[in-house]
Amino acid sequence: MYIKSNFFLCFQTYITKTFQNQVIYVIFHYTIYYKGVLRLYLKQLLSNPIFSKSVLLTGKLGLDRLVDSVNLMDAPDIIHYVKPGQLLLSNGYFMKKEPALMMDLIQQMDKLGCSGLAVKTKRFKLDIPKSVLEKAESLSFPIIELSSVNHSLGEILEQSTGYLLENKNHELQYAISINKQFSSMTLQGKGMALIIETLAGILSAPVILLSHRLQIVEESEHFQDGMIRSLLNNILSALQVPFSNKEPDTLGLVHSLATDYRYMTVFPIHTYRNEGYIIQLNRDWKMDKLLMIAIEQAAHVIGMEFSKNQAVKERSRRYKNEFFSDLIDGFISDQEALHRGKKYGLDASRSMLLCIAKEDEISNYLKQPSLSFDETAISLRDKKYELIKRRISLLGIPFTMFTKSDQFISLFYVEELKWDEIVFVRKLEELSNFLYNNEGMSFSFGAGNLFTHILDIRFSYEEAAKALTYGQQMGKPRFVHTYQSNDVGYLFRMLPVEELKHFYEDTFKGFLTLNENEREELLKTLHVYYKNHCHLLDTAKELYIHRNTVIYRLEKCEKITGVPLKESMQSLRFQLAFAIKPLLFSKK
Fold first, then answer.
1. Tens digits of per-residue pLDDT, 157-190?
2. How far is it, in rounded angstroms, from Cα 528 to Cα 578?
3. Which of 164, 99, 163 is nearest to 131 (CA)?
4. What stretch of H or E contains 575?
5. DSSP, res 401
6. Is there a contact between 356 and 407 (Cβ–Cβ < 8 Å)?
7. What is the DSSP letter of 250?
8. Residue 468: Cβ-neighbour burial (10 angstroms; 0-12, 13-18, 19+)
């Protein structure tokens, strides 16, 4: 008999009659919930009168095991049919015939996560070996004697099943009531603040709602108390350590404050992505099951509210992206751009500069451990958008941000007389390094020139795209390039590739006789030497070698090439060859 399937069928019928338009939403939710909280402890099941004369032989510490179902079976291959969370009833017949099977059975049942084994040993005069009892005790696996119970195993099964269903029905009625209460708050537009305050009243404990980035969204009135508020740092610190972000988890708080709250329950809020967490401060490690149901219902309603708000936000962002995309493509007139652009923060009274951020192929964002789970492509893009937007806002330059295909575009509003391109590039480089070091996101940036007329945005976009393309051709990750119409790379691209290749090979032909390691070592030293304007000490620092080692390598280069390295024309030739190399050997 499978209680889970029968229970779900019964519950589905009830919900259909009660909630009508919310059928899919409630059924899906409670199906998941049944796997979590709506279960019974073994010690609770044994409190049923039908087990009043049962005797616990061993495994007392296992009475806190959860019971999903009760099963009755006697066969040598019984282990292939039991389920996790199942209490197995047996008359011990097959164990009597093959006692060795009992040791293997309890070990496999424990490994599977079964609740326990209840046996009528006197029916076939089964003598449970002492070794089996000792093993069960070490595993905290309960073995229960049913011989004194004046009911057949079939009657025990029937009443146990009824008790399980009755218990679940009570909890479901409570869950429906709580869900209805919280849902009515959102329908009346009273918001999440009232839900959190109501939940705190139900739990008689402080409650706080955090976003998925651990930012405080709402908190109960308990946190107006200075003593409790001082625990916020402990709460946020505790969430930095690894914990399950898919299931409720209880974490300990380490502090020296005079308060009773030593634990906190973390309840994740999930929709199609990780939305945040409900945190409840506890005095005890374990929580009452009905209180867990209340938190779960609040998390569900808040999750739906988060999803609704996110949908509105995504729609607004989509309209914004479409507007700027049409503006860049030249499909919008001057007056229309000025009129519609105000809605999206477009400030046409100031000079502007457009910057494109694009992810490098080597980016390993979200391949690292994180609090997120099973994100969709849209959700992942939104996360990157929010991260980049948050960091750009710290640059101190007013901006409007939007997306176009796989590009994250920022339109900066600047004061032309105070504009310092060098400072701007340095800030973008720091931003790129931060995203890579802290988030695993490898982004490069291309920026166009300043412009004042709103319709010239398309020219600035083309310039930024060219700057980005040029950097990619150089084969460098996490670069920041501004558009320069007459840069050296531009001149190189005007020449045939074969001519560039011939110049490069002719310049370094003397190094071809060396083995690969020595050749790369010398060329790298020479390149860094010229990059540091022929300063020996700076070259040594960048290469992490001694100054004398640099001198030795440079002397070897002079011997190989037969020319003085500091001679102006030879120096220019080598530097041009080094500049050509990325164009010849960059990834296509």
1. 888 888 888 777 777 777 788 888 888 888 877 7
2. 10
3. 99
4. helix 568-585
5. E
6. yes
7. E
8. buried
> Which sign does the torsion angle of CA 318, 321, 325, 326 carry?
positive
| Helix, coil or strand: residue 219 | strand
Whole-number Å distance between alpha carbons of 162 and 122: 26
pLDDT in tens, 364-405: 544 443 434 344 556 678 888 989 999 999 999 999 999 998
Q: Is residue 207 within 8 Å of residue 195, measured between CB atoms?
A: no
- Residues in contact with 525: Cβ distance below 8 Å, sequence separation at least 6, in sequence order: 539, 543, 550, 553, 554, 557
248-to-278, 296, 305, 543 alpha-carbon distances in Å: 10, 9, 20, 51
Residue 57: pLDDT band with limits 50, 70, 90? very high
Instruction: Please tell me the number of Cα atoms within 13 Å of 512 on its side-chain side.
Output: 7
> Helices 130-139 and 100-112, interaxial angle, to 10°?
10
Residues 547 and 503 sit within 8 Å (Cβ to Cβ): no
Q: CB under 8 Å to 95, separation ≥6 — which residues?
A: 101, 102, 105, 119, 126
Is the four-CA dihedral 104, 107, 108, 109 of positive or negative sign?
positive
Residue 271's nearest CA partner among 237, 311, 238, 235 is 311
Taking the C-alpha atoms of residue 388 and residue 392, their distance in angstroms, rounded to an integer, is 6
In sequence order, what are the residues at sequence separation of 6 or more whose Cβ sits closer than 8 angstroms to the Cβ of residue 299? 267, 268, 269, 278
Q: Which residue has the tokens 């404050």?
A: 257
Are 577 and 570 a contacting pair, CB within 8 Å? no
Q: What is the pLDDT of residues 286-308, one digit of tens each?
A: 767 778 888 888 888 888 888 88
Query: What's the rounded Cα separation, in Å, for the pair 523 and 502?
Result: 18
Q: Residue 220 contacts by C-beta under 8 Å, 6 or more apart in sequence?
A: 196, 197, 199, 200, 206, 207, 208
Q: Which of 136, 90, 128, 89 is nearest to 111 (CA)?
A: 136
Could you count the other beta carbons within 10 Å of the beta carbon of residue 457?
Answer: 24
Would you give the distance in Å from CA 285 to the centre of its chain? 27
CA distance 338 to 315: 21
